Amino acid sequence: MSGKFSESDILNYERDGYVFARGLFDNEEIGLLGEVAHHDKALDDAATALDDGEGNRVRLSLWNHPGDGIYGMFARCRRVVDSVEQLIGGEVYHYHSKMVLKDARVGGAWAWHQDYGYRYQNGLLFPDLCSVMIAVDGATKENGCLQLLRSSHKMGRVNHILSGEQAGADIERVEEAKKRLDLVYAEMDPGDAVFSIPIHFTHRVRTIRNIPAGP
Fold first, then answer.
1. Total structural domains in the chain?
2. Residue 1 belongs to a domain
3. CATH number of the domain within which 144 lies
4. Which of 107, 135, 157, 170 ranks highest by number of CB atoms within 10 Å?
5. Which residues form the domain of 39?
């Protein structure tokens, strides 16, 4: 089975709950995706705005079928699919894609959560999935990059409750986890990606400028 990752990468994924794929897409490829996304009125119009519990709103567009357009081409390309199959150990299917739309100077945050916390509520019995986030623009601490808690997938699924209009993980358990586990800032250049186990804890913080983040 071909894919992006070495045997060491796969061991790190199983230990930490995530692994980075630096330069998964080159400048020309990710530049084309960014150009389309930044000018996609349909994507923008379809975005849902959710309150983060502190009066700030965050937006995303989400869809289930990958489609034959550029977003589907990225989601279904061999570099992504083969790499996910490496990590999961077998054939995979597309669950959903989303584009997080970070509006300049608006703020807003995504609560600490497990992706499987949402998917469990949709009837998925087992967390045999992999989440892939592709950086369309540069992601840094300053503009609100993804945060992760290393090895938090070993806690298992945690109950999720509403915070504003978002469902987030039980904050008491998150706070205890933060005392024991390393906080990692997923800083990425355009074209980088991070593959993560969906019972891993992640969080997107407030932003100060417009950074869409991968399908």
1. 1
2. no
3. 2.60.120.620
4. 135
5. 7-204
Distance CA 91, CA 176 (A): 36
Mean pLDDT of 44-50: 77
Phi, psi of 160 (to 5 degrees): -115, 135
- Predicted model pTM: 0.88
112 CB neighbour count, 10 Å cutoff: 25
Nearest to 213 by CA among 60, 99, 47, 104: 99
* pLDDT averaged over every residue in the chain: 85
- What is the share, in percent, of the chain residues with pLDDT greater than 70? 82
Query: DSSP string of 73-142?
Result: HHHHSHHHHHHHHHHHTS------EEEEE--TTT---EEEEEHHHHHHHTT--S----EEEEBSS-B-TT
- Does residue 98 belong to any structural domain of this protein? yes
Closest C-alpha to 63, from 43, 81, 79: 43
